[in-house]
Design brief:
About 0% of the residues lie in helices and about 55% in strands. The protein is mainly β.
Length: about 190
């Protein structure tokens, strides 16, 4: 059993007969009244996000998990296929288990969280950032940079990211996977 002091990003807990992964949390200690923890949790079975508040000291049933490195192989439209980098076994996961599937290119190595009780994969954690090539974008208009102007750009995985005006087709950019936002241009 865990308590609210053990809450951290990535913790998997059993709540309302389902398994949830904590994606955001905030410990709040108001001037008047007891402390509490505000959380944002994602169901690992259906992908729904739930906002919940736990009072301080509340007991939580944590789920023991293991992490393994898997390589993304391909997407067949319905499932995403991964291969374990240690024993080369393959698994398939639905899109709801993935955080940002549109930023994942073939060959990407990700961390898969597996429930130790029944060996069922719960979720996939992407690296903090990925480097993708811009395949389509409008040319930037000179003199249109008085503020932080951005334009949409399509990357090699098909995702559309807002980028600064100086980014052109063929450039490689670093994208923050948690928010799906442009971080910087990568020089080669």
């Amino acid at each position: 059993m865990a308590t609210t002091s053990d809450i951290r990003n990535g913790l998997c807990i059993r709540y309302n007969n389902d398994i949830y992964k904590i994606i955001e949390f905030l410990h709040v200690k108001p001037g008047k009244g007891p402390a509490f923890v505000r959380t944002k949790m994602r169901s690992v079975t259906n992908g729904k996000v739930l906002d919940n508040t736990f009072s301080a000291g509340h007991k939580l049933e944590d789920v023991r998990v293991e992490t393994h490195k898997f390589q993304f192989l391909y997407n067949d439209g319905e499932y995403y296929h991964f291969m374990n980098t240690e024993d080369f076994s393959q698994i398939q996961l639905s899109e709801s288990a993935l955080d940002n599937p549109q930023l994942m290119k073939e060959g990407e190595v990700v961390t898969v969280i597996i429930n130790t009780e029944d060996n069922i994969p719960l979720s996939v954690e992407m690296p903090a950032s990925v480097i993708l090539e811009v395949t389509a974008t409008e040319p930037g208009v000179k003199g249109n940079t008085a503020t932080n102007a951005t334009k949409p750009a399509t990357v090699e995985t098909g995702a559309i990211i807002n980028v600064p005006l100086f980014i052109n087709e063929g450039d490689k950019i670093k994208i923050e996977t948690e928010k799906g936002t442009y971080k910087e241009r990568v020089k080669e």
